[in-house]
Amino acid sequence: MLPFNKSRRHVNLSPPSLLALGFLSFIIVGTLLLKLPYSHHGDLSWIEAMFTATSAVTITGLSVVNIGQAYTPFGKIVVMMLLQCGGLGFMTFALLAVMSLSSKIGLKHQVMAQETIGQTSLYKVSFTVKAVLLYSLFFEAVGTTILTIAWMQYYDFPHALFYAAFYSISAFNNGGFSLFPNSLMSFSGQYMVTLTISMLYIFGGMGFLVLMDIKRKKSWKKLSPNSKLVLCTIAGLNLFAFIAIWSIEASNPLTLGPMSIGDQAINSWFHATVPRSSGFNSLDVASLSNASTLVTMFLMFIGGGSLSTAGGIKIGTFIVVLLSAINFLRRSEELTVFNYSIPQQTRFKALAVVSISCITIFLGFFSLLILEPDKPFLDLLFETFSAACTVGLSRGVTEDLQPASLLVLMILMFTGRLGPLTLAYLIATPKKSRLRHPSTEIQVG
Fold this sequence. Notes:
By secondary structure, this protein is mainly α. The protein is built from 17 helices and 2 strands. It has one domain.
C-alpha cells in the first residue's frame, strides 16, 4: 500500500481580495450583531441593519434609521466599534494581530502592508502601524475629555461621557454618525462642541504619515514634500470653502441668514471642512443653495489625505492631476513639487484613480435615476457623491429609498472605501511584456 501523503494547500489571496474579504467580514459580523434583539428597539429589518453596518465599516455615516433612537446602548457600542475598525482599516488590525503573535512580520505580509499604509521602507511598517493606533487613541481620548466637559451642562456625567466617546470616535474616523436626529444642528452655537469635532475630523483626515512627519521633524523646512503638499492643500481648500460658503449662505434665511456674525463664521467653517469626508452637519444640507451644494460635492470628491480616515480620491491625487494639467499647458516635461520631481507612474496612478472614481459615481447615479424616477435629480446626485466618497452628508432622501437603491448605495460605499487601495495594489504589480507595438496618433481634445 502506498503511504498517504497529505498535501498542504495554501490559499494565496491577492491583497485586494484580502482587503475586500476583511471589510466584508466586518460588515457581516456587524449586521448580525445589530440584528440581535438586545441591539435595537422595535423592529429592525435586515436591510436596515446591513446598511448601518456597511456605512459604519466604510466610515460613511449615511443611515436609514435614527441611530440614537433605533439602537440600544449595546447597539450603539457595536456601531462605535465598527467605526473604529473601519477607520483604522482591516489591514492595520491584521498587522497588529500578527505583531502580537510574532516579533517579526513575514516578508509577504510586510510587502502587503507597504502598499496598504504607503510606506516605502519595509522596516517602517511595524512602527507605522503602531503609530496609527496610538495617534487614534490619543486624539479620541482628548476629544472625549473636551466633549464630556462641554456636554456635562446638558447631561449627567455617564451620558455626557458616552456621547463624547461616540462622537470622538465618529469624528476622528470621519464616520459622521450622530446620536441626535438633526446631527449637530442643535449645537450650532456651541463653539466648544463644533470646534472640537471639526479639529478631530481634520486631524483624522490629514493622514497618519503627515502627523508622524510633523511630530518627528517639528519644522516646516524639514517636512517631506508630501506633508507640505497635504498641509498647503488642506489650508487652501478650507479657506476657499469657508469664504465661498459664508458668502453664498449669509443671505439664506434657511441656513446662515438668521445667525449672528460669530455663529455664521463658526458654522461656515464647520460646513467648509466637513464635506471632505466627515458627514456631520450643523446646517440643514437640504436648505443649502445650489451653488453651496456644488461646492460641497466638489469637496466630497477630493476627500482627505492618504492613509487617513477620510474618503474621496485623496488630496495627493487631486493635486497631482491638477499639476499635470497645468504642466501640460506649459509644455513642461518635468512635473515638480517643492523642487522634487513627481514620477510619471505616480501621475498615471492619480489619473487612473480619478477616472475610476468618476465612472463609479456615474454608474451609481445612473442606477439611482432608474430606480428612483420620482426623486429630485440633485438629491440623488448628492447622495451618490456622499456614498461613493464615504462622506455621509445627505439631503434627506436616504430613508425614503427602496431596498434596491439602498443596495446601490452600499456597493458605492464599499467600493469607495476599498477602491483606492485595490487600485494601488493593481498598479503596484507591474506586468512587463517584451512585445512592443507601433505607435499611432489619437486625436485628444
